[in-house]
Amino acid sequence: MSDLYGYSHTNHSRAAQRQNGGVSNLETRPSLVECGGRAGTPGGPVHELLAGRAVLLGEHTEVRRLLPTLGRRLVGAWCFLDHYGPDDIAEEPGMRVPPHPHIGLQTVSWLLDGEVHHRDSLGSDVVIRPGHLALMTAGRGISHSENSPPVHPALLHGTQLWVALPDSARAIPPAFEYHQALPTFTGNGVRATVLLGEMAGARSPGTVHTPLVGVDLALDRSADALLPLEPDFEHAVLTPTGGATVDGVDLQPGSLLYLGTGRREVRVRAGADARLLLLGGEPFSERIVMWWNFVARDGAEVAEARTDWAAGRRFGQVAGGQPLDAPELPPTPLIPRGRVR
Predict the structure, then answer these.
(1) Is the dihedral angle over the CA atoms 231, 235, 241, 242 positive or is it negative?
(2) How confident is the model over 309-331, as pLDDT tens digits?
(3) 68, exposed or middle or buried, with CB in 10 Å at 0-12, 13-18, 19+?
(4) How confident is the model over 104-159, as pLDDT tens digits?
(5) Which residues have CB under 8 Å from 205's CB, separation 6+?
(6) How far apart are CA 333 and CA 341, in angstroms?
(7) Mean pLDDT of the 169-179 span
C-alpha cells in the first residue's frame, strides 16, 4: 500500500420497464425534508453504512436514494443523491424527464454509462456523456428537461446529485456549465477524476459556492491506496459498481458509507474492478427546507416558487415534453430543522 500524494495529473430485471429519473424529483407526493445546522455532525471519524431506499418516481422509475435518508440528510452541502442503473434500455426510450423547475441549488449530472440530452430555460442544449460534468446552478430559478436521445447506448447508469446553495448565492442568476475535460490523478490502481472542488492538487473547473469536493474513483482489481482528505470536511463514499473496501469496511454496490469528520486520509482497496464516488464538504451550517425540486429557507419561499411555476412565471420555458405539474403542498408547516432524523 502507498498513497496518491504527488502523483502526476493527468442489470436489473425491471430495467427495461423504467424511465429513469435524471436530476429531479418526480415523486407525485414528495416528502418534506428539513435539514441544516451543525448539531448532527460528528466531531470525528465514524462509520455509518447507509443502504439507501428504493424510491419509485412516476409509474416505473426506481432509484436508490442515499441522501436524504434515515439518519443522514447532508454531507457538506451535498443534499440529494440518487443512484440509478445500470439499466438495459436498448429496446426502451430510456430517460424521460419533462420540464420541471429548481431553486436554491446546483444539480450535478454524472454518468457512468449512457447519454442524456439536457435542455434548459437558458437555451443550453447538450448531450451529457460519461466522464463529462454537467453543472446547473438554479439560483433564483431555472427549468430543464432530460431525455435519452432517440438513438442511445444500451446501458444507462449514473448518479443525480444536488448541492444546496448558501444564503449568499441562492438568489443568483441561473447558469449552466458543461466540462468535458476534468482533472485527474492516478496511482496504486486508482484513477481519480475530480468533479468538483480539489483533491491532491487537482482542481475541478466547476463553480462551487461552499467548500466541498466530489471525486469519481475507478479502482483496478489490485487497488490499494490512501486518498488525501480535508480534515475540516465530512465525507461519504458511494459504491456505484463492484465491491470495494473503504477504511476497512466492505461495501456492496449501491451503498453509502458516511465517514464523519477529522480525517486526513482514507484507505481504499478492491479485489475486482470497482467505481466509487467520494463526496465531502464543510458541514453546512444553514438550515434549509427541501420539497419537490426546491431548496429554500422556509415554507413561504417554497409556496411562492410552486405558485410561480404553476402560473408560468420566473422559470422560463424549455423543450422536452409537457411540463410537470407541481404536487400539492403538505398540510404541515415547512419548518427547517436539523441535519439528522
Answers:
(1) positive
(2) 999 999 999 999 999 999 999 88
(3) buried
(4) 999 999 999 999 999 999 999 999 999 999 999 999 999 999 999 999 999 999 99
(5) 177, 179, 182
(6) 17
(7) 98
Do the Cβ atoms of 134 and 178 come closer than 8 Å?
Answer: yes
Q: What is the mean pLDDT of the chain?
A: 88
Non-local (6+) Cβ contacts of 151 within 8 A are none
CB 87 within 8 A of CB 155: yes
Beta strands in 197-327 (DSSP E): 198-199, 202-203, 212-219, 224-228, 234-241, 244-246, 249-251, 256-260, 265-269, 274-281, 287-291, 294-296
What pLDDT is stored for residue 63 in this prediction? Answer: 83
What confidence tens digit (pLDDT) does each residue in 67-114 have?
A: 998 778 899 999 999 999 999 999 999 888 899 999 999 999 999 999
Residues sharing a CB contact under 8 Å with residue 52, sequence separation 6 or more, in sequence order: 64, 65, 66, 69, 83, 254, 255, 256
Nearest to 86, CA basis, from 127, 130, 51, 123: 130
- Angstrom distance (rounded) from CA 213 to CA 341: 24
Dihedral of alpha carbons 86, 87, 88, 91, sign = negative
Q: Which residue has the cell 398540510?
A: 331
Phi-psi region of 74 (alpha: psi -120 to 50; beta: other; left: phi over 0): beta
Identify the CA nearest to 293 among candidates 304, 282, 302, 280. Answer: 302
End-to-end alpha-carbon separation of the chain, Å? Answer: 38
Give the model's pLDDT for residue 55: 80
Cα–Cα distance, 74 to 105 (Å, whole number): 13
User: What are the structural domains of the chain?
Assistant: 2-281 (2.60.120.10)
Q: What is the DSSP string of 192-217?
A: EEEEESEETTEE-SS--SSSEEEEEE
Region 235-240 average pLDDT = 96
Cell, residue 46: 465514524
